């Protein structure tokens, strides 16, 4: 398994384990600001009881990034059952995922 494959597999485990927190953050942020993506700072130590620091990037902010894949995901997801999460790993790069509640039903 390549390093990238291992990294993405680790991301999927982390995303599954933190799905409820991410889903709730995405729902609140969408209701407040419209389309966008949850950004998780994986380079920061998790805050006890709260997890890794995260924030919301609006669709306009995502557009300014110029990242075609992230722009496509943010414009495409169905906010009733999906959201986009960007995992910022600092020097190791960024991984973006479009996640749906169907993928994680019963998790959390």
Could you explain the architecture of this structure?
The protein is α+β, with helices and mostly antiparallel strands. The protein has one domain. 43% of the residues lie in helices and 23% in strands. The chain is built from four helices and four strands; from the N terminus they run ααββααββ. The chain has helices at residues 3-17, 19-33, 59-65, 68-76, and strands spanning 36-41, 54-58, 82-88, 94-100. Strands 2-1-3-4 form a four-stranded mixed beta sheet, sandwiched between helices. The longest helix has 15 residues, at 3-17.
Task: Give the topology, please.
Blueprint: H1 3-17, H2 19-33, E1 36-41, E2 54-58, H3 59-65, H4 68-76, E3 82-88, E4 94-100
Parallel strand pairs: 1-3
Antiparallel strand pairs: 1-2, 3-4
Helix pairs in contact: 3-4
């Amino acid at each position: 398994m390549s390093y990238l494959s291992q990294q993405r597999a680790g991301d999927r485990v982390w995303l599954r384990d933190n799905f409820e927190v991410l889903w709730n953050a995405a729902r609140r942020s969408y209701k407040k600001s419209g389309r966008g993506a949850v950004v998780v700072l994986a380079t920061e130590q998790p805050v006890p009881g709260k997890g890794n620091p995260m924030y919301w990037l609006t669709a306009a902010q995502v557009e300014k990034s110029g990242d075609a894949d992230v722009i496509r995901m943010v414009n495409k997801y169905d906010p009733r059952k999906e959201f986009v999460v960007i995992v910022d790993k600092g020097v190791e790069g960024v991984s973006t995922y479009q996640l749906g509640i169907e993928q994680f039903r019963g998790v959390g």
